[in-house]
Amino acid sequence: MTELSNSYLEEAIEDSRPYASQGKVNMNLPDYGEANKDYLGVSIITTDGSCYSAGDHDQYIPMQSTSKVISLMLALQDFGKDRVFQTVGMEPMGDFFNSISQLESYDTSKPFNPMINAGAIATASLIKGQSVENRFDRYMHFLKKITSNDHLEMSGEMYEAEKANGSRNRSLAYFMHSTGTLVTDVEEALDLYYRMNAVMMCCHDFARVGLFLAKGGLDPDTEESLIPAHHLRTVKAIMMTSGMYNSSGHYAVEAGFPCKSGVSGSIIGTVPGRMGIGVVGPAIDEKGNSTAGGALIKKLSRDLKLNMFGIENTERTKDHAF
Amino acid sequence: MTELSNSYLEEAIEDSRPYASQGKVNMNLPDYGEANKDYLGVSIITTDGSCYSAGDHDQYIPMQSTSKVISLMLALQDFGKDRVFQTVGMEPMGDFFNSISQLESYDTSKPFNPMINAGAIATASLIKGQSVENRFDRYMHFLKKITSNDHLEMSGEMYEAEKANGSRNRSLAYFMHSTGTLVTDVEEALDLYYRMNAVMMCCHDFARVGLFLAKGGLDPDTEESLIPAHHLRTVKAIMMTSGMYNSSGHYAVEAGFPCKSGVSGSIIGTVPGRMGIGVVGPAIDEKGNSTAGGALIKKLSRDLKLNMFGIENTERTKDHAF
Amino acid sequence: MTELSNSYLEEAIEDSRPYASQGKVNMNLPDYGEANKDYLGVSIITTDGSCYSAGDHDQYIPMQSTSKVISLMLALQDFGKDRVFQTVGMEPMGDFFNSISQLESYDTSKPFNPMINAGAIATASLIKGQSVENRFDRYMHFLKKITSNDHLEMSGEMYEAEKANGSRNRSLAYFMHSTGTLVTDVEEALDLYYRMNAVMMCCHDFARVGLFLAKGGLDPDTEESLIPAHHLRTVKAIMMTSGMYNSSGHYAVEAGFPCKSGVSGSIIGTVPGRMGIGVVGPAIDEKGNSTAGGALIKKLSRDLKLNMFGIENTERTKDHAF
Amino acid sequence: MTELSNSYLEEAIEDSRPYASQGKVNMNLPDYGEANKDYLGVSIITTDGSCYSAGDHDQYIPMQSTSKVISLMLALQDFGKDRVFQTVGMEPMGDFFNSISQLESYDTSKPFNPMINAGAIATASLIKGQSVENRFDRYMHFLKKITSNDHLEMSGEMYEAEKANGSRNRSLAYFMHSTGTLVTDVEEALDLYYRMNAVMMCCHDFARVGLFLAKGGLDPDTEESLIPAHHLRTVKAIMMTSGMYNSSGHYAVEAGFPCKSGVSGSIIGTVPGRMGIGVVGPAIDEKGNSTAGGALIKKLSRDLKLNMFGIENTERTKDHAF
Q1: B52: which DSSP letter?
Q2: Mutate which of A178, A186, A187 to disrupt the C interface (most C C-beta within 10 Å)?
């Protein structure tokens, strides 16, 4: 088993960076030109607190869909599992992340899960608060706490860009409103969703979110429990089956630990009990996942034996067998 | 953490048995009358060789869809990962297990994954052999080896019943033949598929399959490797995302370890590095999963801390952190 | 063949009125209570100018989807056939009138035809004008001319109700905007669409629209051509294949002449070269068609030999054979 | 209005023949090589008995889907409208002719209409008879009678080719068997369907079928009624909405009279009270319709004023107005 170190990560970055050329940068995002295409960065923080980084790890990008992980945690905290999953399902779907057909299909109009756009809009609409501002404040407060980073903020430019290209999400939201899945004001639900997506983070912040999941909900500073561990099990399970758009099955096989990606090229990875991983690589494939970032995630899994379905990962537990 | 014992399992069975009344026995199977509806049995074999059983654990039922796990292992062994996944996908789908619509959708006619009927028929068609008999012999030889049970055999009656009710599967197979996904003789592919489904097993046999996966492919008698561990990681990942029909997401959340069910009421469970689980409970829900068996699987996960996304499951590894 | 007369129509109304009890009044429309459920009225105007009416023929109801006929005529007039059918298809669909799945299917995001909501919103967006007001004025001007009724106007109450229940249409419109089918301002396109639907008409007005189509586009007052006859052939053909929601095939068989219905219970019928028919019957079936009105349309077809596929309808042309 | 004559038809053929280059010959049919690609022939028989032909009108090709018109007439004759439309719908669908998705959709597994493959297989299964041979004999007897051609016969070679490429139809048939739509033996239903499709006809025969429909069911020799006129109205209406695969809407607009095409390049056209049209042109477009034949049908409609939605077609009836 390869030992984790900064120099190992540098090598891994150089191995994976060439995959960026197979992807395209999401041109709906401002300042996201071809210039940024080859960016690739990674941070890993282990449960014992060690931190490793390499490549363009200090590059800030918008959370985009990685925000779905945060809003699901908050909604579970605010309403509990039963209520959340009355509004949104927990089943993976073999379909595009912004599919509207599935909302119309069969006897249900419930979005399949909280990791697809429709499901995330519905989930975000559950977060408690008197106003969009208030609800977004709560989101930011929670995010700053679990990343231990008080400086996080939304990019106004990204927010505006998101809003300007929002027709598909609007369509999803109004559809859910017409079926009664979304009961709050549609424009407010979308506004909150756009804000969440526009928060800027770097690898270290993404890794901190992964670490929070890996440690079962402990405050990174105080080690006290911020959110019940069973809610985080739920989040991790849904990331595993549905976190990587319609390549989720592929990543379950090839990475083997829970991940969530965003079309900005961000990836949050979490290996329960071991580490959180944050990746930034703006060039994405046609499914929406970072090409170089995905290659890196899979390489880390192989080299560091992170695959949860692997026996190597568990042989060390032999003496714990009962 | 509850300690695993026969008496614990007896209690768990009695707790879970009442859920049988919420299900229905699959009437397409002979001798599967209401009389059997309340049957519920379980066997667990840990990686150190200890075996625990309770309830109707010696009741034999046909494998049905649990055979998909075996045929995927054999196909991977025969052809390797690349070739197998040229024929069948590895993505979960939020749809019924015998869906034909998905075969027609978008730009692909490849079945979503090897755990749905279409995918399993395509996977089985890959197994090497000169004839149906020969290919089925290879299947049985492999199955007997990994279960360490030479007495396993196919039920002629179940095979005939399967064949007589086979219109939907025939439809799937001919569709795949028309698109070039299934290139072998259709009736032979179906015949092999029906035979596999009709093999009779009891809880101990199902648990043995789970154990084989949990131990990464070691011969239960000789401890030598029968199949590369990475193939078994693939199988377990696909069971996690797609093994429980369109409740797979629910089981990823509520059980948190790889499972595969069959409409006979069988369930194979596997906890990597820890144990194999076999469950028999003929009353199934509308998705195709054993109602009492599913309740039991979820109870075992909670009581024995089997959820792979859980932190309790991994705290014991703290001293292994790097 | 039954002779057309007011007394015949009175009988036909009484025969058909009981079917109202099989339908439901659309409760999204104000003042559309159970009180109105049994209303049934009809007007027929023949190409020689004779006019017959019976029942509640002076009851005013909103046009709803019957406006789709008007906006298609205007769009064809403004842009010609080629341009209109670059934006919207001309194929019938066996699906619900507000289906969004079809927009996502296969390689096209073009709405199937101008008689479904998505297609009508796209068609309306083509109508020329500097502003919503200006475009709606042109619509009203055209409508008043072909109905020879200067008193037609929009109901503000119906417009507001339409707007308040507009989530599904908004979803359709934003979806089309996201795919580039709808290139104008979405809210303006919807606003125009809602206004058109909220224009109040009675049987005589609906019959006048049918007559305009039946006479190939002649001004009812001056007999001069207002719109090329070939555009009206297009409109009538599309009404035949797609005018009665997903009962269009049923009405092609059972009525056999072009019709268009609205969820207010309105029906426009047109028998080329013979007559225009206007029907009002607020109780609608689950497909969106007036139950009593539909029964009446089918009775008229049988009694008056209006089925264009019928030989009786054409025997009179024997001496014209070549 | 152009006068109908052999020389006019020769001109029309030469105008339309170049469109053959835009199509492809169906290579699943034997002897259907590129050599035949430019074939184009037409026959027209008017209700007064005059017959006109031009081009390759004596070229024999298999009926393919034009047989659907015959089997629908026979099924209506054998069982009546109610019974037939319990098994198959009468709604057009905006989907591919061999779509299986629609069978799975919504709450019905009834094929949309008798003009698509699934619907035609179900319809054919209704035709009375003790055996496939007996039922096919009845089909041939009826076909010979309405075409007044005792020499019609099935091509064994075409039948074998159809059978060898039958996986998609098999898939459709077994699907319908699994849902209870098809209650007879599946292989027998398919066998009958393949035989019907393999009957060889030339333009004159196809035109005779169109004439039979145009005259409302009269025996071409004796002028006595062979089948009630109302059944033929039903057939013609369904041809109008669904006869040209998923270009049916296009042909309703551009031709404006009932047509049915087959992938062999055959087209049956019928103008009620006026004429039957038979076209042969083997090069088909991606929807399944003859490219040159379709161009010819549309040219005939324009030149001879055959569009039933046209006012020119009906102005002659002004003196019959009531």
Answers
A1: E
A2: A178
